[in-house]
Amino acid sequence: MGNKKISSIATKFLMALTGAGFVLFLLFHGAMNFVSIFSPDGYNAICEFLGANWYAVVGSIGLAILMAGHVVIGIILTIQNLRARGKVRYAKTERPMGVEWSSQNMLVLGLFILFGIVMHLYDFWYKMQFAELMGREPANGIEQIRFIFSNSRFSIMYLIWLAVIWLHLSHGVWSMFQSIGWNNERWKRRSQVIAYVVASFIVLLFASVVIYYWLVFPNL
Questions:
Q1: Rounded to 5 degrees, what are φ and ψ at 101?
Q2: Eight-class DSSP state of 92
Q3: N or C: which end of the chain has fewer CB within 10 A?
Q4: In Å, how far are 21, 33, 57, 162, 215 from 129, measured between CA atoms?
């Protein structure tokens, strides 16, 4: 029983660690995209700096490993939770008082986000860094952003995706604080507020870019 508890704590800590890595990446990536609004040349310079350079390739591989680990650990935690609840989950299906919907559906939200990541990788990474790695002419960063988000269908899809990311992040950041021990009454409310602020800030960075190019460059 003790070993199982230690294993569960270790798994939750790894989930928090990989999640923290994603939060830092999203902050960087969101800030990078936001540059495109007020300095298209600056955004293209960042894209060129990253490009297919070795450090950018290593970073991409590291992110892929981080994402795979986060997904696998999330599935493991979901299975552990289902086993721990046993037959109780069949006896009562309504949401418990004080438990957020997102906290009970993190795996579903995560899988939807994963689908969005695949879409995002195809729209940008595949046509930029991967194209350069394959010896093809990469898409121009600012032109690609304008092309994608000038299309109403793509913009709406991205905004829905970002709304789901907010749900996932707002609970995930709070859960991360719980995993590192900030789970007493004093820090419970504080960590929830911090989670909402972090999730909102990240999503607003990305959403502002989508909305800006959707409104300023419609139907290119």
A1: -60, -40
A2: -
A3: N
A4: 21, 16, 8, 23, 27
